[in-house]
Amino acid sequence: xxxxxxxxxxxxxxxxxxxxxxxxxxxxxxxxxxxxxxxxxxxxxxxxxxxxxxxxxxxxxxxxxxxxxxxxxxxxxxxxxxxxxxxxxxxxxxxxxxxxxxxxxxxxxxxxxxxxxxxxxxxxxxxxxxxxxxxxxxxxxxxxxxxxxxxxxxxxxxxxxxxxxxxxxxxxxxxxxxxxxxxxxxxxxxxxxxxxxxxxxxxxxxxxxxxxxxxxxxxxxx
Length: 222
Hints:
The chain is an all-alpha fold. The protein has 8 helices and 2 strands. Strands 1-2 form a two-stranded antiparallel ribbon. A hairpin with a 2-residue loop joins strand 1 (25-27) and strand 2 (30-31). Helix 1 (2-20) runs antiparallel to helix 3, helix 1 (2-20) packs parallel to helix 4 and helix 4 (75-100) packs antiparallel against helix 5 (114-132). It is elongated.
């Protein structure tokens, strides 16, 4: 975020410098707004030009591109504006050098002037602003294919161990069924052999009178 703000400020300053440069002298006290746009392709002539038909026109276009790049936070758009400013300035220098037989810088007021330096500085500031900007962050969105059999949503809470809430169905439902015995053949309900012998031949205990008669009765000790 901070890089985008700083880069945008630098880019706007560069665009403003580029737009203002044609109002200064470019060569031998001749301002940049006096050079026609077609002179950059056909050669420098002595004919004057209107403001909107001069070198100012491509610089205004670069400033508009800069505003779009700042709003969109696109560093590539801002860099394109800087290349437009530097490109038209260098093209003018080539045509002016061909017409004058060379480019010179003289402290007496002849040769290249401050307007050209300002245009080049504006283009460099635009490139610097594009480098400072971080651009827009791209969020990766994973697209998942549609499931052939969507799972219905489960509104019940996930509890462990699973519990069953009492309800009408749970209250009226019968209890668990008794388990079936594994053996179902004949004689399934017969009593054990010991019980059958006891039932068939009951145990008889002799009375005390019979034991006395037989002389085998021994009274218990006190």
